[in-house]
Amino acid sequence: MYTGQSETAAPHPYRWLLHCFTISYFTMSFLVRFTWPPLISAAAPELGISMAAAGAYMSAFFMGYVITQIPGGLLGDRFGARTVIAAALVLEGMGSLGVSLAEEYATGFFCRFFSGLGGGMVFASCVRYTARIFPKRELGPAFGLMMAAPSGVGVIVPNLLIPWLASHWGWRGAFAIVSGIAFCMGLVAFSLVRDAPERHARGRSFQQLGAVLRERNLMFLGLAGFWLIWTTVCFITWGNAHIENLGFDRFDASRVMLSFGLGGLIGSPLGGCIASRTPSLKWGLAAMFLMIPPCLWLFGEARTLAALAATAAAAGIAVGLANPFTPLLTSLYADKNSLATAGGVTGCLYQLGAVIGPWLLGVSIDFSGGYSLAWAILAVAPFMGILCLLPLQEARRRQEDERL
Question: How many CB atoms lie within 10 A of CB 287?
Fold first, then answer.
């Protein structure tokens, strides 16, 4: 198995097979976090909570997720991806099991937060592992496949699996089964991932963190990603409830949200290929951001299942196209010995959008009594992301791969 490449080593011959497992670990973290949205209409009345409180359940996950982004990156560079990914998936499973047993709002909120603590450690180690097993010329497509999780597979699987599980075992049973899957994936990660820690990493964690924080390109990239994640997570959190509010049932809503996931599944790999060929990653990402607002506005105005599905698919494609640019730019701006740390820092900035967004849109829904204001707020976010991209310098593209 892979044990980490030297700077002169050839690309790992089984890198695409290993990457399939990396994608599965990252996707598992999205199955855990997005278990809640399809269950809001069933769970919220039983728990006696408002729509703002239901949105805060998503925010709770991302509060924990943000807290462990940077520590997870530091641990990934120090101990390697194997230990961090396996431990993270087990923590996510424990939190999901706790939600299935919760009898009151506060308990469920804490368990969602606990799941987030585990989920926050996955992204940085996946970025590190991917950047170490692939040469630079293949990083765009590799990250394109990996980033199909946020708006693609990670949306499709919950919207297919969770309503079916809930129809047989209730919303609590759905959470319990997801926890078991997370435990199993943690064992798989511990068995299969091989990633050597960085040499001399002990005692250098805070120097690496300081170097990452001083890299202005990574900071502005993180702020741009904040608005991209804001858009993605808010859409996924409130899309189902919006569709049900229009008079459709839970299964219709899940089918529409599947269209968003299918769009992301198409857009993310395509975006990875575009990113590997575009002469300017900065302006390429800005162009992808511009495609998102019209899709969100049209979705908010749609009133038939066909129109909802079509606009959701378009939004999924637009978000998916943008997704691979962010980890690719992170891997190019970061020092080769601080890949996980850089992924953790930028990931922390990204996920602040996931903490604030679902709650804020829930407040707007309670305030306005509908979803029109929420979709208007959401459509502004990509323009804010473009403003954050403007100070970025162009990432250097060298023919030789200095990392492998």
Answer: 15
User: Comparing C-alpha atoms, which of 276, 261, 3 is closest to residue 143?
Assistant: 276
Fold of 15-389: Growth Hormone; Chain: A; (1.20.1250)
The values of phi and psi at residue 48, to 5°, are 70, 45
Judged against a pLDDT cut of 90, whether residue 383 lies above it is answered with yes
Mean model confidence pLDDT for the chain: 84
Mean pLDDT calculated for residue range 66-94: 88
As a whole number of angstroms, the distance between CA 284 and CA 94 comes to 40
Tokens of 219: 């900071």
DSSP state letters, 227-238: HHHHHHHHHHHH
pTM for the predicted model, two decimal places? 0.77
Asked whether residue 89 carries a pLDDT value surpassing 70, the answer given is: yes
And the tokens for 156?
């499709």
pLDDT range class, residue 10, cuts 50, 70, 90:
low
* C-alpha span between 301 and 352 (Å, rounded): 28
Q: Which residue reads 């980890």 in tokens?
A: 327
Q: Quick one: tokens of 226? A: 């904040």
With beta carbons less than 8 A apart as the criterion, state whether 149 and 30 touch.
Answer: yes
* Assigned token pair, 229: 């994640």
d(CA 106, CA 247): 30
Q: Is 398 exposed, middle or buried (0-12, 13-18, 19+ CB in 10 A)?
A: exposed
What's the alpha-carbon Rg for the chain, to the nearest Å?
A: 20
Residue 249 sits at φ, ψ, to 5 deg, of: -90, 175
Rounded-to-integer distance, Cα 363 and Cα 287, Å: 30
**Could you give phi then psi for residue 45, rounded to 5 degrees?**
-65, -40
pLDDT in tens, 186-241: 888 888 776 655 554 555 666 778 888 889 999 999 999 999 999 988 898 888 88
